[in-house]
Amino acid sequence: MSSSTQIPKTQKAWVAVRRGKPSDALICDENAKVPSNLEPGEILVKVQAAALNPVGYKLMGLLPNLFAKRPHVVEHDFTGLVVDANGTELQNGDAVYGIIPVPLNLQSHQGALAQYIRLPASHVVPRPSELKPTEAAGLTLVGLTAYQALFDVAKLEQGQHLFINGGSTAVGISAIQLAKAIGCTVTVSASGKREPLLRSLGADHFIDYTKGPVHEQLSHDPPSPKFHVIFETVGATDVDLYTHSEKYLAPGGIFVSVGIHPHGISGFGQALRYIWELTRPSFLGGTKRTWKWFSLSFKRENFENFAQYVIDGKVKPVVDSVYSYEDVLKAYERIMSLRAAGKVVVKVDPSVD
Ligand SMILES: NC(=O)c1ccc[n+]([C@@H]2O[C@H](COP(=O)([O-])OP(=O)(O)OC[C@H]3O[C@@H](n4cnc5c(N)ncnc54)[C@H](OP(=O)(O)O)[C@@H]3O)[C@@H](O)[C@H]2O)c1
């Protein structure tokens, strides 16, 4: 493809212009500049589809302008076609999927909800031909989160038993598949209607959180042997899951949490209790299990390893819903409902599947 003649000067991009909920914070800039003057190692991608992540609306709602450096294009996950390979190992026309991690988004102002994005070639991998753009768009952020949390932080190994609190979160869906791929037993929690989906992805045991607090269900009927790893993917909904974990998490086991969801902590008192329970030393009655906070940090090596699971068909995309580029605000409503099972995807190019 000879790219230079086909790349327009302006594009439509969804830009955060102020702090607030998406309907207040975002505008669709129909005259945004298409990035030019690529640095060595950077490429230009024509975006076909993008996917939303909770971090997108969390940053929009929480981060003051001083740190967010608005205006900037929003979101992190995408798939598309390379239109300027800029001397890298990629070729114009290559189909890729990838990520603009949060620090890069804030520094470069590039985001996935644009028609063209400039980013380092290291942040994309080839898209397998079997995957449609709407399937590949949302693989990366949640896939790398699950990969790093399970393998780098928790050191999950073949034959171990993993509990995923929030099996139907997009992070949980990736985690189930990665853990099954290395031969683990996986127990998940979700609401009852998710059981068929999560079993189809490989979950061995299912806990319906709507039937009672998960820590009570696990304490009443603990696994034998106990879990080696607990992966909390909902976001601080239940500190009791940690404080009771000696009953169902093996000594030496690790409790990894993806962080705090704005809905997860209601009020100052609950926040204080959370902090106290996570920091209380065992001689003051604290829980004798390791708790770790996890935050994704992009590493090319992890991305290549994760992408191999996708190529091998061991991690398959699960798409909750697909929205048009004009309907981005409806897509945000869907992900903010906390009811999506899989990725909420936006078709940036209306002609793709
Ligand atoms: N630290 C990091 O680097 C990092 C990276 C990625 C994500 N995260 C965080 O991880 C969390 C999950 O992200 P995501 O994109 O995977 O979320 P998501 O896909 O939007 O999560 C929606 C799912 O959550 C489930 N859910 C809601 N409440 C639940 C509960 N109490 N117990 C079990 N499941 C529940 C829902 O299932 P039901 O309909 O069955 O309730 C729904 O399927 C977010 O807080 C996100 O910010 C952190």
UniProtKB/TrEMBL annotation:
Recorded superkingdom: Eukaryota
Annotated protein name in UniProt: Uncharacterized protein
Organism encoding this protein: Phlebia brevispora
